[in-house]
Amino acid sequence: IYEPTLKDDEFAKTKVIKDLDEFKRISDVIVANRQADELLDVAEKVYTRDVYSRDYPKAKVALGIGTTYTT
What we know:
The chain has 71 residues and is α+β, with helices and mostly antiparallel strands. It has helices at residues 20-26, 57-63; strands spanning 10-11, 14-15, 30-32, 46-48. It has a two-stranded antiparallel sheet. The termini are far apart.
């Protein structure tokens, strides 16, 4: 679990990671409520219900969602 504000080192018998870079490095899969710019470098690991990245325009562009091309 990644939770930088939790004071405990464990939650529900699961280790709590407070450093995002460490969390991304050790995780095989990241389940998130929303896509976030901080997760763009590990987008292939992220599973989210935010399939259109509505809340994060930078993520939308980086992931090629909603991109329009003109000639």
